[in-house]
Design a protein that fits this description.
Elements lengths: L3 E4 L4 E4 L7 E6 L10 H19 L3 E8 L5 E3 L4 E4 H9 L3 H18 L7 E4 L4 H13 L3 E4 L2 E4 L15 H6 L15 E6 L10 E2 L13 E4 L1 H13 L3 E7 L3 H16 L4 E7 L2 E3 L14 H6 L4 H9 L7 E3 L1 H18 L13 H19 L4 H13 L11 H15 L12 H15 L3 H13 L2 E6 L2 E6 L2
Parallel strand pairs: 3-4, 3-13, 4-7, 13-14, 15-16
Antiparallel strand pairs: 1-2, 5-6, 8-9, 9-10, 10-12, 11-12, 17-18
Bound molecules: adenosine monophosphate (AMP) and zinc ion.
Length: 483
């Protein structure tokens, strides 16, 4: 199946062709671990999980790096100014930046599990890749792309003529409009720090000695730390090589973070850094940007406390396509939860139907064809809403069918596809009922046969207490999970 992806680099939807026919090298910009991730951050990682699942289903072997930014992401990342977010987190909680990083990185990994995201093969912390980052600065210095000023070593964007191309930046306008507080020592407003020096008189929890060969000759010893952009380039290239297939991130990364990654990586290697660049649009909450001051950056734990599971949230995210702006409301999340519950009850039918030798041709074809249609939707630029619509349609064809006419094998096959490519864990979350419960259902059917309504109602209540509801159809009783 042909996979098409919207490529920010070419500004069009391209047919995907990796460097190696069978293997895909993928880099995902990971979170800055100074706080819990909010629903917007998580939406990004759910969408990139869909990319990975689609690539795997298409038969590729995916080698994936996702970083954890645990140093160097400054509060104002456009101008390389302000406090390091990690130090800010440390101050807020009265801990060290190392403790903050460890705690929130661990919480991130737990969130990956809860949301059913495939764990990347390489999860790399920026602080574990300091030598690789310094090596990259060294290469750039040797090639003449860097200069040193009071607060760090910078990349001179005027030496990289295609700097503005990726994001379509207007550098002249940027110069004209440079803010008064623009660091006057910088040669160009968009020049960015590769390596920052610890300000004089300040002690940072995370700092490393700057190798003297990176400093201007005769300079004294300086402690420092990497710039956020440098981290991603160094981790991607040291593990995956100078040219990768796909690089993903949020649309906020296009004008600065990814533009800078491209400049420094390609200046260093002389090769194209990534063939495909994918960007997820942002999620809003009640139509408003997520912001700390509004307190609308719900965490997974906030959702759980309000009675929603991480998989309900996953379903909510899949209802939108990654390239469209999303809108989170609790009504939308409730709709997603109901949809998932409905799907789980359909999944439970696999225990209640039998493989028939002469299946109803129509519903068998529908069930089997749905798997193909899901893959078609995903291969069409990860169109998850369409994939969900296909499932709804296939499931709706089962409505009103006698249970004996539902083709068990076809249903199981479709559930397999849904679980492997949409990651909704339908089968794992829908265990069969135990023998005692089955026995109660049989007793209730007998009571109904003898028109003993009092007994049948009593048994219905007993089943309800066990979390099971029963539906009486012409074809016999069907059980569902009570919500
Ligand atoms: P950060 O921890 O700030 O580096 O962000 C982690 C990831 O979340 C980045 O890939 C951002 O692009 C992404 N992100 C931040 N805010 C949102 C949002 N509201 N919706 C979707 N993605 C977001
Ligand atoms: Zn990055």
């Amino acid at each position: 199946m042909t996979l098409k992806l919207h490529n920010t680099l070419t500004r069009q939807t391209d047919v995907f062709a990796p460097i190696d026919e069978k293997k895909v090298n993928l880099y995902t910009c990971g979170p800055t671990v100074y706080d819990f991730l909010h629903v917007g951050n998580w939406s990004a990682y759910i969408y990139w999980d869909m990319l990975v699942r689609t690539l795997i289903a298409d038969g590729y072997n995916v080698e994936r790096v996702m970083n954890i930014t645990d140093v160097g992401h400054l509060v104002n990342d456009e101008e390389d100014t302000g406090e390091d977010k990690m130090q800010k987190g440390a101050r807020r909680e009265g801990k060290t930046a190392w403790e903050i990083a460890e705690y929130y990185a661990e919480d991130f990994l737990m969130g990956i599990e809860k949301l059913g995201l495939i764990m990347p093969g390489h999860i790399t912390k920026a602080t574990d890749f300091i030598p690789q980052q310094l090596d990259l600065v060294r290469i750039l210095k040797e090639k003449g792309y860097t200069y040193q000023i009071d607060d760090g070593i910078y990349f001179d964007i005027s030496k990289f003529p295609t700097y503005a191309d990726f994001a379509g930046l207007d550098l002249e306008a940027q110069k004209a409009g440079a803010r008064v507080e623009f660091n006057v020592e910088k040669r160009n407003p968009s020049d960015f720090a590769l390596w920052k020096f610890t300000p004089a008189g300040e002690v940072r929890d995370m700092e490393w000695e700057t190798p003297t060969d990176l400093l201007d000759t005769g300079d004294e010893k300086k402690m420092g730390f990497p710039g956020w952009h440098l981290e991603c380039s160094a981790m991607a290239m040291s593990i995956l090589g100078p040219t990768i297939d796909i690089h993903t991130g949020g649309i906020d990364h296009i004008p600065v973070h990814h533009t800078n990654e491209i400049a420094q990586s390609e200046a260093a290697s002389g090769k194209i850094f990534s063939h495909y660049w994918l960007h997820n649009n942002h999620l809003k909450v009640n139509g408003t940007k997520i912001s700390k001051s509004l307190g609308n950056g719900y965490t997974l734990q906030d959702l759980v406390e309000k009675g929603f599971s991480p998989l309900d949230y996953r379903m909510f995210v899949l209802q939108g396509q990654y390239s469209n702006e999303g809108n989170f409301t609790f009504e939308n999340l409730t709709a997603a939860k109901n949809r998932l519950n409905h799907w789980r009850n359909i999944a439970a039918l696999r225990f209640q139907t039998y493989d028939t030798l002469t299946p109803d041709a129509d519903n068998t074809i529908t069930l089997v064809a749905a798997s193909g249609a899901i893959m078609e939707a995903l291969n069409n630029d990860l169109n998850t809403p369409e994939a969900l619509r296909v499932v709804d349609e296939a499931f709706s064809r089962l409505d009103g069918k006698p249970i004996s006419a539902i083709h068990q094998h076809g249903l199981k096959q479709l559930l397999e596809t849904i679980d492997s490519v949409l990651g909704l864990q339908l089968q794992a979350s829908t265990p069969d009922i135990d023998d005692d419960t089955k026995q109660l259902i049989i007793e209730r059917e007998r009571a109904r046969d003898t028109k003993d309504w009092a007994k049948s109602d009593k048994l219905r209540d007993t089943l309800k207490e066990k979390g099971i509801t029963v539906l009486d159809t012409q074809d016999g009783t069907i059980w569902e999970y009570a919500n």
